[in-house]
Amino acid sequence: MTSTRSTPAPAEELETVLDNARAASGELESARPGELAGLLRGVADALEGATEELVPLAQRESGLPEGRLRGELVRTTFQLRLFGDVVEEGSHLGATLDSPASDWPTGARPDMRRVSLPLGPVLVFAASNFPFAFSVAGGDTASALAAGCPVVVKAHPGHPELSRRTAELVTTALREAGAPEGTFALIEGTESGRAAVLDGRIKAGAFTGSNSGGRALFDLACSRADPIPFYAEMGSVNPAFVTPEAAEQRGGEIARGYLDSYTLGVGQFCTKPGLLFVPQQALREFEETLVPEVRQRNAAPMLSSGIENAFRESLNSLREHSAVRELVTGGRSEEGVTPTLLSTTAEELLAHSEELMGECFGPVSLLVGYSDTDQLLEAAAAFSGELTATVQGVEDEDVVESLFGVLRSRAGRLVWNGWPTGVSVSYAMQHGGPYPATTAPTHTSVGTAAVERFLRPVSFQNAPGAVLPEALRDDNPLGIPRRVDGKPHSA
Amino acid sequence: MTSTRSTPAPAEELETVLDNARAASGELESARPGELAGLLRGVADALEGATEELVPLAQRESGLPEGRLRGELVRTTFQLRLFGDVVEEGSHLGATLDSPASDWPTGARPDMRRVSLPLGPVLVFAASNFPFAFSVAGGDTASALAAGCPVVVKAHPGHPELSRRTAELVTTALREAGAPEGTFALIEGTESGRAAVLDGRIKAGAFTGSNSGGRALFDLACSRADPIPFYAEMGSVNPAFVTPEAAEQRGGEIARGYLDSYTLGVGQFCTKPGLLFVPQQALREFEETLVPEVRQRNAAPMLSSGIENAFRESLNSLREHSAVRELVTGGRSEEGVTPTLLSTTAEELLAHSEELMGECFGPVSLLVGYSDTDQLLEAAAAFSGELTATVQGVEDEDVVESLFGVLRSRAGRLVWNGWPTGVSVSYAMQHGGPYPATTAPTHTSVGTAAVERFLRPVSFQNAPGAVLPEALRDDNPLGIPRRVDGKPHSA
């Protein structure tokens, strides 16, 4: 259970981790914003300083290329620092003050002040496909720490050495930045993860990974005597729709952008476009552009043999489906796998949605020919919960507005004339969506709003200044934006 | 399933209700803030105009006194109008705009804009104890409509005629204010409620009532193939703590305030103080003040015979507990029930927490003598999820800060030198708390923030103005507060 252990930890060590997390919880709850921001920045500095050690370790365990991993580490440290800024800016606390009002229509209104406090220890399940940005010190960890919650990370078995080394660096950086012991710990093994999600000391969970894994953990979290919020970001098909005019005006460019997006990271992105809808009359042209280009792609290794096996299994059931034509059959060499390209019609897709509209995590995508824009809209309406939906269109084209109208209630992020892979870490990012994209449609797991998942509001009625959190005191000592008597007040 | 039907509706009618709600969903999603506010105000006006009809109906079915019901109806119409103001002010949409930034550290940042959209049809389970404010047109309905969600209310069987008449008024008012058909419907019967919570057309649920009822529905919502957020506001013991100095300085006043609070509404408030901790040395004085006053209280009817039977059952198991002394035994007459007062020690309470620390919904409360402030803090730490916790203390008294420190991670609202009954509808109100007070610790069911439960964020990446919701357009046509490049911008 320590960060240097290589075998699953015994139950007593999990006990210690959880006890320490609980103990740290009270101390972190009273940490000042500057202190919390200091923790986040300390972790960022430590990871950045260890780039030359961490990147080769990540390469060895994930098989991902060096450039991608360097970029991902930059993203990870940037994200930690951005959450440091969020903490200091203070909007996320939702500080709200109502002054006493004797004439309030529901009876004399007392002095009421509301602020968000940390939920308590958060259990983070690391993902395999982003060994930095969605793993030990990734977005869930950063946003939970920003909320003031201790974090227990369940390591992903796909990169155990990297996980342990990252955890060591995080632990040391937190200690040096003054964090209480128990602010962070790494645990390993499925059984430890299951035990932790069921444990009363854990107050929320976050997960990035497959639908089956996320749902199983969500079910455990809900089955507790005291259920906890469980934020699982799971699979997504991320349909992309090419309008008739876009296909005509720039079909070739769209085809190449699509190929780059669905094969990025060997297709192992939760935002990979798994389906591309193109007008039936343009399908042949798309196929002719794509087939030779797909064939030229180099083989690359998948993250692990487990993931490759799962990919192969779901790929085979797609390939063997009677409604699917195989345009390019991906191969397997010592260097890894090459991409596959499949094709079908919207009519067949709708008739076999159960089998054809699920996520296939890996380098494959399905071209779907649609007969007319009515069928395009019908197909768009068949999706229920997606992280993203993409429209390649032409402004002022008739179908565009209707298409957005259908898609906006079905996906968390709508992309116009771009591709869904590549999730920016910013204020306005939404990385989430209705089930099955996530178990929590009202939240995001990327972007600054991710911190909200780990906060709970508390109101103080007529309370004296001495017991109020600083965010609520008369003189606004933290200098944060607050809402006073219903009106926003900047600091 | 129509609002005038007196028997549980057949399944086909539920189908129609849910189909209509789904159909209304798309239209409401595009409603402008002024239109949504108009719906809320129309409903408020209609209910207010029917005061002389509704209050007697509520009296007859609930047994609650006229004055209380008139006040509750005022609260209900005020609440609807306040949510109208919330909708027009627009902060709840969380509109956030990031401009393109080519130098963004995670790679060129696209134009990204995030706004909250309605979740879709919401199923509201009405409560028995507030036939207006937490029933057909109560806080859950008002906040769901404010979010732009159609509402299906499962009527509480405790006031069927009032529910139907309220639903008629709501339906007519909504129609006259221009709402799409299907914006609102009433359903009746446990089976209809269960079927609706499991139905894919329902996108969120809200409930106010008992722990067993709330948990059962939460479990159903989580068991769906596509789980939905289910916001259950359930029972709470609402402990109140009298510090040594407060007991000395104003024990008599505190005792009387406590009595008024725990007997208010015949003890049928989810914020009723079920336990009052007093210093052991002051216990006798509290008892001497309270006992004659409790005995003088008049009998009053409980909401229904079902609730009275449940009360009697849990009361009996408290009274017969070996650790409990009975100070005043409540009676039963034609007029209803009189209050009960019980007493124990903190030591016994902690030793028998399972039996003694649960909610007993009705006119009873338990005085608890504590030996010293260490034991007081130990007892406070034994609670896990409460809607409220109350401290009667003296400023600068040593224990006060520690007590607030313990309680703030255990309750949604902390009351200082007041009583928890009486929940103001305002901006800073938090009516919620960790489980078992609610199933959703990150949310509130009263106050303007309640609208957040029914919204989901969506981001638009590089999208043209024509497909952007108005809240996100360049010229801010709604004139709402937005966050631009991380900085708050007032309208």
Automatic annotation (TrEMBL), chains A, B:
<keyword id="KW-0560">Oxidoreductase</keyword>
<dbReference type="InterPro" id="IPR016161">
    <property type="entry name" value="Ald_DH/histidinol_DH"/>
</dbReference>
<feature type="domain" description="Aldehyde dehydrogenase">
    <location>
        <begin position="9"/>
        <end position="433"/>
    </location>
</feature>
<dbReference type="GO" id="GO:0033721">
    <property type="term" value="F:aldehyde dehydrogenase (NADP+) activity"/>
</dbReference>
<dbReference type="InterPro" id="IPR016163">
    <property type="entry name" value="Ald_DH_C"/>
</dbReference>
<dbReference type="InterPro" id="IPR050740">
    <property type="entry name" value="Aldehyde_DH_Superfamily"/>
</dbReference>
<dbReference type="InterPro" id="IPR016162">
    <property type="entry name" value="Ald_DH_N"/>
</dbReference>
<dbReference type="InterPro" id="IPR015590">
    <property type="entry name" value="Aldehyde_DH_dom"/>
</dbReference>
<dbReference type="InterPro" id="IPR044151">
    <property type="entry name" value="ALDH_KGSADH"/>
</dbReference>
<feature type="region of interest" description="Disordered">
    <location>
        <begin position="472"/>
        <end position="491"/>
    </location>
</feature>
<dbReference type="Pfam" id="PF00171">
    <property type="entry name" value="Aldedh"/>
</dbReference>
<protein>
    <submittedName>
        <fullName>NADP-dependent aldehyde dehydrogenase</fullName>
        <ecNumber>1.2.1.4</ecNumber>
    </submittedName>
</protein>
